[in-house]
Design brief:
The chain is mainly alpha-helical. The chain contains 10 helices and no strands. The protein has a domain of 92 residues: Rna Polymerase Sigma Factor, Chain: A, CATH 1.10.1740.10.
Length: 191
């Protein structure tokens, strides 16, 4: 049994950022088990869940000086979610898992309006970071319902250019959402 917590999460973050290994150890002891349970609930594999949690703590220590943490618990659970999705991506053959993931994602978004709002905010942030021409083409296609040909005619550019810009926009949005949203998407699932 570990000694009782001696610091708040906020105090631990400050101490860890000052290279205090004892603070990091206290964070680890406080959160490793619930993080493991969360990862295991999604991955259903002991080793993969352990690896995901280990990666989170390694990253936390390596990035301790640069990382901005408002809520340690939320940050860690989001980081584990990111790692679980990263693990899923490397094992694309687990169709049963993807079915579970799809159901869980839908349940989270319909049952947790705050989570949905947070995801929506991240999506807007990622979208606003796109170059203006990619934003416009994306809007015309996704929101305006225009075909690539119609967009090309409206903007007086080639269909290939529209395809390229749309592809770039989607890739940038996926990458942005992967690094941010994944943390949030499984908040409730992994708790």
């Amino acid at each position: 049994m570990y000694p009782p917590a001696t610091h708040t999460d906020e105090q631990l973050v400050v101490l860890m950022q000052q290279d205090n290994e004892s603070a990091f150890t206290e964070i680890y002891n406080r959160y490793w088990k619930p993080l493991y349970i969360s990862a295991h609930n999604i991955l259903q594999l002991k080793t993969a869940a352990q690896d995901a949690v280990q990666e989170v703590f390694i990253s936390l220590w390596k990035r301790r000086k640069a990382v901005q943490i408002e809520s340690l618990k939320a940050y860690l659970f989001q980081a584990v979610r990111f790692q679980t999705l990263k693990a899923i991506r490397t094992e694309r053959t687990d169709h049963e898992f993807f079915n579970r993931l799809s159901k869980v994602s839908k349940d989270i978004l319909t049952e947790d309006p705050l989570l949905f709002k947070e995801l929506e905010g991240i999506l807007k942030q990622v979208f606003s970071s796109l170059p203006a021409d990619e934003q416009e083409i994306f809007r015309l296609h996704r929101e305006g319902g225009l075909t690539y040909r119609e967009i090309a005619e409206e903007k007086n550019i080639s269909v290939k250019t529209v395809e390229k810009k749309m592809s770039q926009a989607l890739k940038r949005m996926r990458n942005g959402m992967d690094t941010a949203t994944v943390f949030i998407l499984f908040t409730e699932v992994l708790k």
